[in-house]
Amino acid sequence: MKKKLALVLAALMMASSLTACLGNTKQETTAAAETQAETKAESETKEEAKAESEEASAETTYKFNVDNVEEHTFSLSTTASAGSALADVTHNFADTVNKLSNGKITVDVYEGSALGSEAQNLEALTAGTLDMAVIAVEFYVNSIPQVGALILPYMYEDYDQVQKVLEGEAGAYASQQFLDVAKVRNLGYYVMAFRNMYTTKPIHSVDDLAGLKIRVPESSLYVDTFKMMGAAPTPLAMGEVYTAIDTGVVSGLENTPDTCLNNSFYEVAKYFNMTNHLNAPTTFSMSDKVFSALNEDEQNLLLEAGLQASRYGLESTKTSDAKYRETLKEKGMEFIETDVESMRNKIDYTVYPFMQSEEAKTLYDLVQKTK
Asked: What pLDDT does 6 receive?
């Protein structure tokens, strides 16, 4: 009896032990299944994120992985006044950099020549003491004369044509000249409005320019152009122009309509002479010393932002040019239908000293080929 009871107790103990083992096995299996599910979910999330990243990257021209982008803050100088078309596009570039980098890269914009003139900014970019600046192509002409072949007067018919040239071989060739000579990296071009003349007397034809003192940028290209047309070109810093016109030091200036509006030049120069004599794009320039210190993903992100800002700028210029002209009419400016052909006939591309160089001839041929 004792032996039988012992056998029964042993069987019960074995069954209990087996049940416990089965319970542990079930718990371990459940835990393993949960771990596998979590791992699968994490993997799927990563795959989805990767797919989204690749999808976003597929929409860009320059490929970059934002995970490899570090935090940076860059300073960007511009002579543009607050509220101007150029200031708007400059801020668009800064915002695009911040957006593409998921907030990792900040570009602080300093308007109104707060960090110096374009000529001073270009020197600082070359030296690596300034991160970025908006530098018009005409300012590069002073140190890299051959790039003047990109912006010769009466070279372009409309804005789309200018953009096509800048995004093509000619624009790339000019950018390489900036890099080789000035050690500056061009992140993108911005097609600005065609330039006109704003004066204290009407300009009906090129004859009315004879001996006229007119403010031009500090660029040899502009000085030579207005000398060809018989004027007396007078380089002045933008901050001096209003007073110079008001006191009769000069009889006007040439520039874009939004520059005329945002600097209130209409108050001292009554006549808007529709000359459309030149289209001079500007650039989002960056010190190559600063650019080269970045990794490839960061560099491509900045180049992508430059391209997107360039295309934004093109559309902005096309829509805002007419608006600025209309506003200037409302401000009391008198619009003059200038005889453009009389001015065009005075321009001889072969007279420009820089057009004697092989680099300028190459660039000129690339422009004509792309147009």
From this structure: 41
Q: Distance between CA 36 and CA 80 in Å, rounded?
A: 58
DSSP 251-269: SEEEE-HHHHHHTTGGGT-
Q: What is the pLDDT of residue 271?
A: 98
Which segments of the chain have a pLDDT < 70? 1-58
The 3-class secondary structure across 293-340, one letter per residue, is CCCHHHHHHHHHHHHHHHHHHHHHHHHHHHHHHHHHHHCCCEEECCCH
Residues 6+ away with beta carbon under 8 Å from 237: 113, 117, 218
Nearest-Å Rg of the Cα atoms of the chain is 32
CA distances to 61, 293, 303, 359 from 277, rounded to whole Å, are 33, 40, 30, 24
Residues 224, 370, 341: CA angle, nearest 5 degrees: 45
pTM: 0.79
Inter-residue contact 282 to 134 (CB < 8 Å): yes
Is 326 in contact with 87 (CB distance < 8 Å)? Answer: no
Q: What is the pLDDT of residue 83?
A: 85
pLDDT on residue 85: 87
Answer whether 325's CB lies under 8 Å from 261's CB: no
CB 237, CB 266: distance < 8 Å: no
**CA–CA separation, 61 and 327 (whole Å):** 37
- Between CA 292 and CA 299, with CA 293 as vertex, the angle to 5 degrees is 60
- The three-point CA angle 277-280-284 to 5° equals 170
CB atoms within 10 A of CB 58: 8
Q: Tokens standing for 177?
A: 């000249």
